[in-house]
Amino acid sequence: MMQSFQHHAQAFEQFLQEQQLFSREPRNLYEPCSYILSIGGKRIRPSVCLMAAALYKGITPDVYWGAAAIELFHNFTLIHDDIMDNAPLRRGKTTVHELYSTTTAILSGDVMNIMAFQCLERVKPELIPVLLGIFNRTAIEVCEGQQLDMDFEQQDHVTEEAYIHMIAQKTAVLLACSMQIGALIAGATEEDAARLYTFGKNLGIAFQLQDDYLDTFGDGDKVGKQIGGDIQANKKTFLAITAMLQASDTQKTAINILAHGHGTTKVQDTIQLYNTLNVGSICKQAIDAYTQKALQALNEVQVADEKKAPFRELVQFLINRDY
């Protein structure tokens, strides 16, 4: 019987606790690393790494170390992203730079990044060159995606195509990389690992579009952060780009005035315009389109269909979530 996503998430959590990676000195460097890992998170990336391995020869210590590399790198990016966004909350808790200091957060993020590569050192030597190549390429793409995201904030016009490319790099490729690495460690063919990468990438795009949707139309208590944060920061999300594409000249002027303003009703007024332009429904249609692309790639993976059931359950969990 194939284990569920929740089972793998719990197993990885136990692995992290057993390893005690950050129980070392100096405490002022490592305590923030423990903190960011302790404040929640769905453990999506390491869990899908384990799930991918389970499709083939199974989950070994090597797979756990590959998953740990992914999770440490992901949390390193969260610490630094929160600094760049000046975000006060992460997962409903105080961000690392707010709780400790910006300089501490930068250094703690740096050491998490380095320790991610240390985790890869634990995998059997013959696999390291291939895994390191995938990991390095992905890490660079994540940085490129983050820079594009910041660049977009200074641009008046961003195309939907450019935005999808940005979120693919910033968010989706790490999910895709997780599946590819887990599959390769467990003996998958390069072709099957590539199919799982395609599945993960399209699912990651759909996941980020759902995040965009929830940032504007979600419940703040469930999402764990302030609703309308993207609007306040003038981020070029899928919603903002779609609004400009759908808007009349008069509505475009109104959107631009709101974007450059700082009034207390900025978020509320923008959401009202989005509702008028049917932006939420269009975003949901895009989420469905990328979800279907992901499922198509999953269908092509050369393992027994019943083994894929946990991945289909994961798709439903990620895309139908309200937080």
Task: Please give the CATH architecture.
Answer: Orthogonal Bundle
**Major sheet description:** 2 strands, antiparallel
Major sheet: arrangement of strands: 1-2
Question: Which CATH class applies here?
Answer: Mainly Alpha
Describe the structure.
- The chain is mainly α and 323 residues long.
- 74% of the residues lie in helices and 1% in strands.
- The protein has a two-stranded antiparallel sheet with strand order 1-2.
- A hairpin with a 2-residue loop joins strand 1 (89-90) and strand 2 (93-94).
- Helix 3 packs across helix 8 (160-185), helix 12 packs across helix 15 (279-299) and helix 15 (279-299) packs antiparallel against helix 16.
- The chain is globular.
- The chain starts with a helix and ends with a helix.
